[in-house]
Design brief:
With about 180 residues, the chain is of the alpha+beta class. About 30% of the residues lie in helices and about 25% in strands. The chain has five helices and eleven strands, in the order H-E-E-E-E-H-E-E-E-H-H-E-E-E-E-H. It has helices spanning about 1-15, 60-70, 110-115, 120-140, 175-180, and strands at about 20-25, 35, 45-50, 50-55, 90, 95-100, 105-110, 145, 155, 160-165, 170. It has a six-stranded mixed beta sheet, covered by helices on one side. The protein has a three-stranded antiparallel beta sheet with strand order 7-9-10. A two-stranded antiparallel ribbon has the order 8-11. The longest helix is centred in the C-terminal third of the chain and has 20 residues, at about 120-140. The two termini are about 30 Å apart.
């Protein structure tokens, strides 16, 4: 019996092992090749090149940055094309100052798409909400809580693909999510 309990504990530990996210130093970034995104975060600067976004976080103190660096390690569990997840941590020596993520070309956030228009196609709007809801449900199934869910953090491209973004405030808690939010 003790052997089986030991195996169960080992398998649980293996399930929650976290790979260390790759890091880059700020000195490795060529700022001459970056352009500023039209839509900026409230407390961040977001730049991009052809393939990647660089989010520089301005509002966190040293402890909050440590906490965020720890949280970013869990994002390898979100291997899903509906999420623009952090890929690499940007460091200035040993201090986290931001992270990179893929660039979602030709996209607009749903807030601007539906508030800047004089008329709304409600069937398209409903379709976008359904796709967003399915992505959010998958996010929850993977053990994450998205604390900054808003139309500004849902992107849609010209092909109609929907992606969720801006996961700075996300909480990872596999057991509490499964016990409360998943059928």
């Amino acid at each position: 019996m003790t052997f089986f309990l030991f195996c169960a504990i080992i398998s649980k530990v293996a399930l929650f092992e976290v790979k260390i996210m790759n890091t880059i130093q700020i000195t490795e970034i060529n700022f001459d090749n970056l352009t500023r995104l039209k839509r900026q975060g409230t407390f961040s600067l977001i730049l991009r090149d052809d393939q990647r976004c660089y989010k520089f976080i301005r509002h966190l103190n040293k402890n909050q940055k440590k906490h965020l660096a720890h949280k970013l390690k869990y994002f390898d569990r979100l291997d899903d094309n509906r999420f623009l997840i952090p890929e690499k941590i940007i460091m200035d020596n040993d201090e986290l100052i931001g992270y990179t993520m893929k660039y979602f070309d030709n996209s607009i956030d749903l807030y601007n798409k539906y508030t800047k228009s004089n008329s709304i196609d409600f069937s398209e709007f409903n379709h976008d909400l359904r796709k967003s809801s399915k992505a959010l449900r998958e996010f929850h199934k993977k053990g994450f809580v998205f604390l900054d869910m808003s139309f500004s953090n849902i992107l849609k491209n010209e092909d109609g693909d929907i992606k969720l973004c801006d996961f700075d405030g996300t909480i990872y808690s596999y057991s509490s999510i499964n016990n409360r939010f998943i059928e």
